[in-house]
Write a structure and sequence with these properties.
Structural class: mainly alpha
Shape: globular
Low-confidence stretches: 1-10
Strand order of the largest sheet: 1-2
Strand content: under 5%
Oligomer: single chain
Helix content: over 70%
Organism: Novosphingobium jiangmenense
Family: Belongs to the sodium:galactoside symporter (TC 2.A.2) family.
Keywords: Membrane, Transmembrane, Transmembrane helix
Number of strands: 4
Protein name: MFS transporter
InterPro entries: MFS_2, MFS_dom, MFS_trans_sf
């Protein structure tokens, strides 16, 4: 048996702070890989490689669809191997493969044709995403194996969310400045890939090596094929309710993420405000993490999840009344005026950032509770399959979100263009605003109706 595995009865429920930190830091690099290619690859392909915009979208979509199948497979694989070698080899191999894949994505700019470039990038992203699955699924499974105490597992998820938010700030907020600092063009993209690749490698390997000798709960793996293990998952009703809840919630969020740029371009008419908006939202999320450590202890994870979701939905629906007006209240150093509507938007960012991270981390924390429930009821647990399926459904939701956004925008008369942003009708702008307000808020409320069926029986 691997030295990092131990019987659950021999493990203390309290997880040392150093272990929590070593676990959480791995999410920093993981989040950089999760977000940066999705945001930057279309831009890289269309501006550096001459790939048509429609094809660039497919290049990013195809590997993501593959992960819907890959994540559960990796989960089952890591479950079968955990008693022999533990999960550390998966973390190490996934970290190295993810890093090499990330660097390779932006390493070449001289392809024979745009279509060959698209094929090459798709293949590289496919391989890099597979390597990331090898890391991320066992990584999530470990969260359910570090402690038998639900509050300790929530503490683990709070630190994980802290590093995830830092990853968003770095990956999304600093990528373009780094590219421009190194001169833009091929040199800028190469420098960015090496810097972020090194960050991925260091943070992910820190977790892999830091957890190598940390004892994990070893309840054994569910025997049989992946289909047999999925049947075991299907018998876990709390998990299925949580899975459906998160799926609906993520579809709404994915649709809103798709149109954030359009909202600020057409509805607010202040595209320059996006970085400030993201900074305020991320800072609020970081500051609110102690709240999501304390509140579930006071009122329970389910009630805290409902509270965070309701606040998010209530604030999100107010985007229906977003506008571009308001009296000027200040002027930025570059001469850009700031009006009252801009301040209301930043206030929304603070509130949304405070609660958004809360219900995301609580969903993951409750997922570990459902795994622990299976372990207590049956004596065995296939943590990797639970984590892999949860991850796969998240990716499916984020693949469907842009599709829904495209359908709604087309239905409301959005006009595509080349060479710059085209003027849009009032109806088209209404469709954009709906995708950022009423639609995600409604899906969140529907998700909460599903979540009302969540019951986690208490076992002795």
């Amino acid at each position: 048996m691997n030295a990092s595995l131990a019987a659950s009865s021999s493990l203390p429920d309290e997880v040392p702070t150093g272990v929590v930190l070593r676990y959480g830091v791995g999410q920093l690099g993981a989040q950089v890989f999760r977000d940066t290619p999705a945001v930057l690859l279309p831009l890289f392909m269309t501006t550096m490689l001459g790939v048509p915009a429609w094809l660039a979208g497919l290049v990013v979509l195809v590997p993501k669809l593959w992960l819907i199948v890959c994540d559960p497979l990796v989960g089952a694989w890591s479950d079968r191997m955990k008693t022999a070698i533990g999960r550390t080899p998966f973390l190490i191999g996934g970290a190295v493969g993810t890093t090499l894949g990330f660097i390779a994505l932006f390493a070449f700019t001289a392809y024979p044709s745009p279509y060959i470039a698209a094929g090459a990038i798709c293949a590289l992203f496919f391989l890099a995403s597979t390597a990331f699955s090898v890391y991320s699924v066992p990584y999530l499974a470990i969260a359910a194996e570090l402690s038998g105490d639900p509050h300790q597992r929530n503490r683990i998820m709070v630190l994980r969310m802290f590093f995830a938010t830092l990853g968003v700030l770095v990956g999304v907020g600093l990528a373009q400045p780094i590219i421009m600092h190194f001169g833009g063009g091929a040199a800028g993209w190469h420098a960015m890939s090496w810097i972020f690749g090194a960050l991925c490698l260091v943070s992910m390997l820190t977790t892999a090596s830091g957890l190598r000798k940390v004892p994990l709960i070893n309840a054994g793996a569910v025997p049989g094929s992946l289909l047999d293990q999925l049947k075991t998952v299907a018998a876990n009703k709390p998990y299925l309710v949580l899975l459906a809840t998160s799926f609906l919630s993520n579809i709404g969020q994915a649709a809103s993420y798709t149109v954030i740029g359009f909202v600020f371009l057409y509805a607010v008419q202040a595209i320059w405000l996006i970085p400030v908006f993201i900074l305020c939202m991320s800072a609020a999320s970081l500051a609110a993490q102690p709240l999501w450590l304390w509140l579930p202890r006071r009122i329970g994870k389910p009630r805290a999840y409902v509270l965070a979701s309701l606040v998010w939905a209530a604030v999100t629906v107010t985007w229906l009344w977003v506008g571009k007006g308001g009296a000027d209240v200040a002027t930025l150093p570059g001469g850009q005026p700031v009006n009252t509507e801009h301040l209301l938007i930043l206030l929304r960012a603070v509130v949304i950032g405070s609660v958004n991270g809360g219900f995301i981390l609580l969903a993951l924390s409750m997922m570990t509770d459902t795994v622990d429930y299976q372990r207590r009821m049956q004596g065995v647990a296939n943590e990797g399959v639970f984590a892999g399926l949860f991850s796969a459904m998240e990716k499916l939701a984020f693949a469907l979100g842009p599709v829904i956004a495209g359908i709604v925008m087309s239905a409301f008369g959005f006009v595509s263009s080349t060479g710059g942003a085209a003027a849009q009708s009032g109806s088209a702008i209404t469709g954009i605003v709906l995708l950022y307000s009423a639609i995600p808020a409604t899906l969140q409320v529907i998700a909460l109706l599903v979540f009302s069926r969540y019951r986690l029986p208490v076992t002795s």
